Amino acid sequence: xxxxxxxxxxxxxxxxxxxxxxxxxxxxxxxxxxxxxxxxxxxxxxxxxxxxxxxxxxxxxxxxxxxxxxxxxxxxxxxxxxxxxxxxxxxxxxxxxxxxxxxxxxxxxxxxxxxxxxxxxxxx
Length: 124
Hints:
The protein is mostly beta strands.
């Protein structure tokens, strides 16, 4: 599971070594000012690979086993989405209005806590 930290006006998501190999990224940095919406997704892998719409997400770079995990950069409905989700773990879907990704979906054991921390730090 990726490690998240709020630092200097950013959400910093650091991947584990295995996630780095699968996703092609060691870290994703999200400016808090760019966050427009936060949404909890209870079972992201049950919605194929796109926890936002339930529709197919096309992998650009990363690892994916539908129903099990999706890690990396995907395209869905004209948007570039970074996914780091795993079966049995809820996720926080973060919508953005700037940057490379339009959405970042991160698996976390307590997405409500992460959302509250982001809001307290000034996000959406």
